[in-house]
Amino acid sequence: MRRAAALLLVLAACSTGRPPPPPAANSPTTPGPLYVAVGASETTGIGAETPLREAWPRVLFRTVMPTNAAFVNLGIPGATVATALRLELPQATQLQPDVVTVWLNVNDILAGVPPADFERDLGALVRGLRRTGQARVLVANAPPVDHLPAYRACRPAPPAAGPECRAPGGELPPPEVVNQLIAAYNAATARVAAAEGATLVDLHAVGMEARAAGIEAALISGDGFHPNAGGYQRVATAFAQAYQR
Amino acid sequence: MKWRDAAGLAVTGVRRRIGRSILTVLAVALATTLLTALVTIAGTARTKVIAELSKGGPLAGIKVTAAEPDLTQIDNDDARPGAPKDLDEAARGRIENLSDVRVVLPIVAAQMVIVPPDPAVDPAVLATLPPVPPPRAPANATTTSTIASPLNRSPVRAPGPFSEAVIGIDMARSDELPVTVLAGRLAERRSLTEVAVTVGYLQRLGLRKEHAPAVLGTELTLGAPRAFVDTRPRFRSRWVRTMIVGVVAQEAASGQFLVPIEQTRAARAWTAAGGDAEGRLEIPTSPYSGLFVIARGLDSVSRVRAQITDIGYATTAPENLIASVQRYLRVVEIVLAGIGLIALFIASLGIANAMLAAVRERRREIGVLKAIGARDRDVSRVFLFEAGALGFLGGIIGTAGGYLAAFAVSQVVNSYLARQGLAGVTIGFPAVVVIGSICGAFFLAVGAGMMPARRAAAMPAREAMESA
């Protein structure tokens, strides 16, 4: 073994040259913008096979941000806007980001937060993140949920092959009620974005487009609730388009 | 008798027995070829290796850790250091000022989470490279997707995220780094977006050294953790994107990623700003994780290590391995020279045999020479001249053959080194070897012809004529 190691060292030492290096690119030597993602389980990438690679903020970071940008994901699974105000906003403020994305609404809907409270808290959150205009904030509205397997599992006559119902009461309101609630949430999100100078990301439209194309089910992960890698790719694309507007 | 006459008689003798003369010359030539080739190869290996080691190659490097030395392991080249001890600018300055220290390279390491890209290689480049060996699923990697290039039936697995030390080096002194670049280049000085990976990363992908070009241009995401404490400690990473610009053969320190020191400093600053989360996150206090000290020569390594130990830091260096390399090289030289000398001895026996046969066959000529007044030394001179001429001719042919043999061997060795991703060697053929080989063959032949020449000279004229 020692002889083999010695021989390898002899060979290594005999190698005096190096292959010619490729031409150096103009590699950044100063830090770029800081991007912070505020959100819940979708923001952390739950539902993707490799969240650290496939979560939508990571796709956005890799595909849109400058190469010298840095990224911090503050998402907390299960977080509502109130949770984010309490736990994520202080951390985001401390980091002084240049770009912030916010996708928080589905947990508020599930928790029964009234749209007015949601609007108030979301306004405070975006206002805090904007830091009087120093950061660019992108806020997403809620996608349609009435076709989600996890929702249909909490309605009468659920599909046999779908996931189990995990709603606290064992049953969720009918689609018309849920859609009305989502419409109210999305209207509130649009008002907050307009009032605080944030950019609105219309995930509801993205979901409806997928539904019209007949691919909505293919974008949902096995838990019947979170997007999969393909779904996150579409979310990232929607954020990217909004960012580049 | 004049030398000229002796030379003429010698040439006449060679012409008369041209077949045997050619065979004798060939014997000398073959022996000289063998000796010359062996001496050249051994000499090249020794000078190349020693030169590389002496000028500060990987083996002349001493790793200094941010820890106190463990004196109970003083002769251990893989020492377990004692208590942590900060390695700061002052310590670096003291070590730099030590005699026999050629250069000191500071190292700042940061433990980071690495997210390889998917796909992890450039399929177009991989298709131009040797086939990828059958995949072995790494224990700590999750397979997310595979690539099967048209020419590589074996898929390349994209490993899942993993934690690894990222090594930061001052790239302004990258030419001093004791690493061999297999493909691409090292990161640009102060670059925040470039990284070089080691062969360990290739192995993680199930690739070998020859596949190094396939990972160039792919992008890694590196995350430095920080603890945020709200209702409970949460670990948030600061992620940056880096492009792989090179693959290196050795690790400068324990870690598969080599980056400009600015990157690891930023990562450590991010981690340190968050606290240790009740000891769950290691926050290094030492400004430097370690130093890579290169001694002025192999002989200085022990002395420099002792001086650094006296300053109060633990060191490691492959000293035992260095000694082993030197010992093995010496043994190889002795064995090769021994083989060459045996060949030359056999060749000299052949010359002596040929000359004895010549003496026996030329008794009449010896008798005639003596009858017309030739002295003993004149007769001896004829045979010595003949032996010397054969040796000289064999020496010239053998030296040329030795160079060709050494060149052929170097081509085979270079082909092997190229497959290993290492630069080749150039066979040196110094004048001393050329002159030594030719002169050696000449004098050996003269020495071998001495006894037959003496016998011819001592032969009485009458007896020579009668026996003829």
At the fold tier of CATH, the topology name of the domain at 32-143 and 190-244 in chain A is Rossmann fold
The H-level CATH homologous superfamily of the domain at 32-143 and 190-244 in chain A, spelled out, is SGNH hydrolase
Report the average pLDDT across residues of chain A: 88
How many beta strands in the DSSP annotation of chain A?
Answer: 5
Oligomer: heterodimer
How much β-strand is present in the residues of chain A?
5-15%
Q: Report the principal-axis shape of chain A.
A: globular
Structure description:
The complex is a heterodimer of chains A (245) and B (468). Chain A has helices spanning 2-14, 41-44, 51-54, 56-63, 81-95, 106-111, 115-130, 149-152, 175-196, 203-213, 229-244, and strands at 34-39, 70-73, 99-103, 136-140, 199-201. Chain A is α/β, with parallel strands linked by helices and 245 residues long. Chain A has a domain at 32-143 and 190-244: Rossmann fold (3-Layer(aba) Sandwich), CATH 3.40.50.1110. Chain A has a 5-stranded parallel β-sheet, with helices on both faces. In chain A, α4 (56-63) crosses α11 (229-244). The longest helix of chain A has 22 residues, at 175-196. Chain A is globular. Chain A starts with a helix and ends with a helix. Residues 1-22 of chain A have low confidence and may be disordered. By secondary structure, chain B is α+β, with helices and mostly antiparallel strands. Chain B folds into 2 domains: 3-54 and 325-467, no CATH class; 104-290, no CATH class. Chain B is 48% helix and 17% strand. Chain B has a 6-stranded mixed beta barrel with strand order 2-5-10-7-9-8. In chain B, α2 (18-54) crosses α10 (376-419), α9 packs antiparallel against α12 (461-467) and α10 runs antiparallel to α11 (431-458). The longest helix of chain B is centred in the last third of the chain and has 44 residues, at 376-419. The two termini of chain B are 23 Å apart. Chains A and B meet through α1, α4, β2 and α5 of A and α2, β6, β8, β9 and α8 of B.
